[in-house]
Structure formats: C-alpha cells, structure tokens
Amino acid sequence: MSIKQSVPLVLALDDASATLEQVGGKGASLARMAAAGLPVPPGFHITTAAYRRFVEENGLQERILAAVSAASADQPATLDEAARQIADLFARSDMPEDIAQAIRSAYAELDGDDTPVAVRSSATAEDLPEMSFAGQQETYLNMRGAAQVLDAVRRCWASLWTARAIGYRARQGIAPDDVSLAVVVQELVPADVAGIMFTANPLTGAREQVMINAAWGLGEAIVGGQVTPDSFVVDKASGTIVEQQVSEKDVMTVRTAGGTREEPVPAEKRAQASLNPAQAAELARIGARIEDLYGWPMDIEWALHNGRIFVVQARPITALPEAPAVSQEAGAAEWKLPHPKGRYARASVIELLPDPLSPLFETLGLPAWNRAMSTLVGGKVLGRAWDDAMGLMTINGYAYYDITSMLSIGRSLAIMAAALPAFPSLLGSARQRWEEESVVYKALVKKWEAADLQAASAAELLDGVRAIVDEAARYYLTIQSGILPAAYMSEAAFTLFYNKLVKRRNDPPAQTFMLGFDSAPIRAEQSLYDLAQWARTQDGLAGALSALSGEQFNAAYRTGHLEGVDEGVWAEFCQRFGTHLERYGHTIYDLDFAKPLPVDDPASQLETLKFFLSGSATEPRQRQAKAEEARKMATRAIAGRLRGPLLTTFQRWLERAQRLAPLREDALADVGLGWPIARRMLWEIGQRMVEAGAVESREDVFWLKADELQAAVRALDNGKTLTTYQVTIAERRAEWQRQSRLTPPVALPLKGGVRWLGIDWSGVMPARAVQEAGDVLKGIGASGGRVTGTARVIHGPDEFGQMRQGDILVARITTPAWTPLFALASGVVTDVGGPLSHSSIVAREYHIPAVLGTGLATERLKSGQRITVDGDAGTVQLH
C-alpha cells in the first residue's frame, strides 16, 4: 500500500490518533496536551507521510544519504557542505499538489486565509526523555497566507538536514535513514509576555519549585539569547514567588508584516517585572498539570496575551541536577575525611585547580607535583629527606593538601627552624632559578614538538608525557619557591610601609605604584588588539568575524575558509591569528591538562576580538601608558616630599617591588608551556585506543587512570587485545558532573579546619570559609571602585562566548588565560583569590573593581542577576 493511501497528510492538532511516528516529538506532545484540555493554540499537523511523499516523488532519498555519508561529526566543514547540498535539493524540488492542497485547506479552517501562524519542525527523534533535539530544526513565526505557509513547510523539511542536526544525530548513533519530519502549524499568539518554564528548579534540582523565565514580546528573544529575562522561582504547592530577579530588558521580539524583528523595549518597561504574582502562580499551576500528565519534569515554552496563558511547546528536561540535600548536615556528610583526625586545606597551587580533577591528572599530575615538592623541600629547604607528609590528594574529586602532620607543634617548629635559613637564598636566587628552569622546560617541549608522534611507540609517548608533566611540576615549584613569594612579599612590604609611614589623605593608593608594567597577559591582549585593528582594514572581514558564533569561528579557522571573505584575506588572518596562538595559546585556564587551552579552542578569544573590532575598546598601550605616567607622577611627588632615611627606605622597597611584580605574571604564564604538546601526545595514544575499540573518542584518554593507561600502552605496543573502558568512562563522567556541582570547602573538617598552632588562619586563606545568609557576599577588596551591573558566571573557556561588554565577571578563579575577558568586564568577583592574585593585578590594570576570595560567588550568584561590586569595602551586593 502506498504512503499516499495509508497515512493522512494532515491531522487536527488534538487528534487522538497522532503518534510520534506520524507527527514527531513536538507534535505528539502538543496533541497530548491539547487532548488533555491544556491551553494550546489551535492548529494542525502536517504528518511525516507528507515529508516522505515529497522526498519520494522528487527522488531525493539516495542523494540525501550520499551527502550525509560524506560528512563527519568531527569535521564541521563537511557537515556544512552536506547541509548546503541538501538544502539546495529541497529548494529545487516541487511540492505534490495534493499535499499543497491539504495544507491550504487546513490553514483556511483556522481563522481565515490570512491568519498569522507559527510553523514549527517536529522530528521523529525529538523531545524524548533520554535526549533532547531542541534547536536542531527550524521554526518560522508570523507566516501569513497560504504561500508563506507552504514555503515555511518546505524550509522546515529541509532543516531536518542542517549541519547541527546531522552532527547531533551522528553523535547520538541515529541512522540518517531512520528519521523523518512532521510540521506543526499553529495560530501565532501575539504575546505581550513570553518565556520558558521548568517544572523543577534546573539550578538546584529542587522538584518542589518551578522556575519561570519571562520577557516582553515573543519568546524568540529569550531562546536566541538577545535578552536577559526576568527569573521567578515559584513554590509548586502554594504558588508563591520565593525568589525573583528582574533584569534590564533592552530588546523584545515583535511581529512584522513578513515575520519578526527585534526592537527596543519602551523605557518605562525595561526594569519592570514582566509577570505579576498571580500570573506566575497560574503558570506554575499549568506547569504542574503538564508534569503530572507526563510523569516527568518538563521544559515548557509559553506565551501570555490579554491575560490568557498559552502553551506552545513542552519537552522533558534531559539534564537535571540531583535534588539538594535536605539539610546542611546532610550536605556536610559529602566531605568525608580520608582520616577522621586529618586536616586538609585548599591553597597554593590548588588555586589553579578549581574543579574536580580528571582521573588522569589526579593519578599522573598530582604525583608529579608531590615528587617535585619532596625534592624541593628535602633538597633546597631542609637539606634532608622529606617524607611527602604535606602531599596533594583528593576529596570528592577536588585537590587538597594533607596538612595533618603540620598540626604537631613540635614538628612544625622543627621544620620551620630548619627551613628559615634557606629562605634568603631561595628568594635571592629567585630570578636566576626561574630562568634556568625555564630553559630546561622549553628545551624539553621543543624536543617533543619536533618529534614525529605517529612514528613513536605508545610507550615512548607516555614516557614523554610523564617527562613533560614532571618538568612542569618542577617549573611551578621553582617559581612558587622564588618568584611568586618574592613578588608577593616585596609588594606587601612596600604597601605596609607606604600606608603606615608615608601615605597622606590625598596621596594615591599603594597599587598605583605597581601599575603600567609590561607582562605576558598584557602583551597577549595587545597582540589580539593589533590583530583586530588589522582586520578592520580588510574589506568585509570585520563584519564577517563579528557575525560568527564560536562554533562557526573554529570551523572557519580550521578549514581555512570563511564564506563571503576573500580567500587571501582569510589566509592572512589565519596566519596572524596562528602566530598569536603560537605565542600565547599555552596559557592555562586550569592546571589540569585535561582542560582545553586557547590553542585548542580558538573561539575562546572571539568575544574579546569582536569587542576590539567594534572600535569602542581602549587601545591597550594607551591604557598602559596612562597607568605608567600615573605611577611615575606619584613616585616623583612622594619622593620629592620625603627626606633622609624615610626617602631611602621608600626608594629601596619601591624598587624591589617594581622589579619583581611584573615577573610574577610572566612566570605564571608559562606554567602550561608543555600542555599543548602533552595533550597531542595523549590524543595520539587515545586515537590508537579508538582504533583498537577500547574507547570511543581520543578525548576519553583523560578519563583513564595512569595505571590503566600504562596497561593500554603495553597492549598497543605488543599487539594485544585492549580492555574496553566505555562503561567505566561513562560512570566517571557522571561522577565528575556530580562532584562539579559541589562547592569545595577551603578547609576540612568544616569545623576547626583553618586553625593551626592554635591560630585561626582563615583570614589569610585564598577563600572565605563561611558566608553569612543574606544579600551581601564578603571577600577581599583587591581593586578599588564601585560598579553595578549584570553578573556573568563563567565556569571555563567554553562559556567565554556568553560574556558581553559591561558584564561583571564571576568565576571560581582567573589565570593569565582569562585576561581577554577583563577587556569586556566592568568588575570581577571570584571564589578564590587574594590581593596579590592574578585577578587583582589585572583588575587594577583595567581600573575595574574586584572582590576576590568570596568562597562561593559562583554558587550564590546567577548570570543575569544585578549586583554591585564594591572593591573598597570588599563586598558584593545582590539585587
């Protein structure tokens, strides 16, 4: 029996016979809700039979499959090419007349021949509990007239084969000949307010709460990210709002004669809440009904017009945090100590490890750091064997120092007595030791960069990785025992001397004397700025770059082709950008070598590059020159006023601080020098494991432990069968996700963990151990000034694209690789950091307020929230 005879081409929206196979995931969901009496706008389905008839009668299936078979999910350019070919096939094909007539008739029955409608794709593999295809296919709003509707239907069918949809299905293991597409046509709700509702709190996992995002106009401004919506958390049982954040809503999506457009929100409505309490309660009630209907937490798109609420889409939430612990004590039980009487602290190098560690770094990287520390302390400090008593280890996946042995007063005093004589030598030789170690580190890296990795055995590659990691650890311990403390101590000593004995009421702050120097992060910023200025001189290049998403930028850079830009110009841009990454692409976001670097993810630089392309950015050299001039003027003014020993001491302490301060950033910038080549070596091993069937992706190598990788390497080199790790890796990824939602205490146990030798050391820890409840977070005021703006919580480079000019950067830590974001930021807040950390140094250079070491800013603050950062008082006010 033919498709034409057996399956209807069009179905009413609430038709009880509408199945997933006939009307797709979105359509089946709407049919289910409409049949249950929920407020769904009227409409109809164009079934998968219509799509299959269109493909069959135009002979498209074999050509579609041929185009898809030539594409690879790991090669964006091939996906783009397949999508382009298929879109062209659909555009040139004719719609069978009986299908067109069925659509015209169903459309005319809605509310006349000119009814504005939304035409939405509905794929058969979509909106399922185990995976979400949200955003993979297209939606067309405000289509009016049969001609526009028919054209939108054809484009929806073609969108089954967009690059992102082809790639997503390939990664999910869905065969291309197993999918089909239906289309839903619904009367368009001319929304006064629209948004998204989650029937469980997606941030905390609380099932008893509903979270609603709302903004003026149609919902596309929220879905597309053009506006930061208002946020309401509503208690399901009572319907009361328990938390509300009203954003400054600058734009809204409105209808036009030919579709939609963004336009400014009227000034009087921008800061006004888009929902009142009764509307929020009604939405929560509808959300609870939909959740009961499905038996699953739901993600719901809704619209409000003339006081009536309409549901336009609902799908299961596929990624929801575990429900929060019922009490603080229950949460505290998560931090079980390795030894009941042990003491553990997160400080020093751990400031560069904000997240749970990858299994490979935990078992290969931490031992390297412990060995380097043992050698340093035993050889250069104590002059005798060191037993690793203060080694690095993990609790709940997070790195901690085991400081248990240091709680013994006798032992601590003995170690300090032995170590004190060595400190003058360590500090005095700081620069020399750093420069010597840097030469060794660079030589080892260059050796492996010149090697043929494919020709090396797996054992040689792993031994090389171990050597690089060992050298990186020695490099870090060298600067940690020299350049870093020398810089910190000299600046702290100068600041104390200046504030106590020199500074008068109207004199500049001590930090003025430390600004305007050159450093690796500043040079990296200047390099990116220069690239942007060159791009602005090339016809069409600046505009093309400004329009790219991060994924599109990476694809264009790696393929050497950017649509609409002259090939020679783009080749020159790629060469210049490649030089920038070669010089600065090794700076780390995180010490864990499993994390990508700028050289791995060039798109992390894109938002700052766009800012520099806009022409509104301050020239970095001008900012630096201004700071340098302020420093010199302050120095001349103070020196001209002082006399005798006071002047001599001022000049001596200032010269030492200014000489050492810039070296700190240069030294830290090279900690990850060996990570790019080490990652390539591990990828090479990982790829061989993929080919042997042991893992699914070369990236999976980072989810193995060192002994497992060693066993795999032996098997690879000896031609033996490898153990398969797919299940183990999946379990470890899930456990890492669970751990990443925790906020690691700065010291353990939670009570008494920061007391040592009878002294409370919480004041000098890199993060506060406790924050009081309320709307104010306290931290360290590391860069002066006060600013109110929008918080932007950034967890890593994959989220850099969310940062916008004027946002307040909120992060666990920042390292030199985060510097590009400071050009966009109006303020900085961190979980970890102090007055001499990277965050404070760069914030001062940019003259933006910074409050550091809050302990849990990334947990308490949400992106889009209005906050005030007071860098003088060391507070963050939540609005």
Q: Which shape, going by the Cα principal axes?
A: globular
Low-confidence stretches: 1-5, 126-135, 324-333
CATH class group of the domain at 3-187: Alpha Beta
Going by helix content, strand content and strand pairing, the class is alpha+beta
**How are strands sequenced across the largest beta sheet?**
20-27-26-22-23-24-25-21
Distance between the termini: 65 Å
> In percent, how helical is the residue content?
40-55%
**Helical stretch tally:** 30
Name given to the CATH homologous superfamily of the domain at 3-187: ATP-grasp fold, A domain
DSSP strand count: 27
Mean pLDDT: 85
Which sheet architecture does the biggest sheet show?
8 strands, mixed
Beta strand % = 15-25%
Q: Evaluate the radius of gyration.
A: 30 Å
Annotated CATH architecture of the domain at 3-187: 2-Layer Sandwich
CATH topology name of the domain at 3-187, in short, is Dna Ligase, domain 1
Provide a concise account of the structure shown:
This protein has 879 residues and is of the alpha+beta class. Among the domains are: 3-187, Dna Ligase, domain 1, CATH 3.30.1490; 193-316, ATP-grasp fold, B domain (D-amino Acid Aminotransferase, Chain A, domain 1), CATH 3.30.470; 510-652, no CATH class; 767-878, Glucose Oxidase, domain 1 (3-Layer(bba) Sandwich).
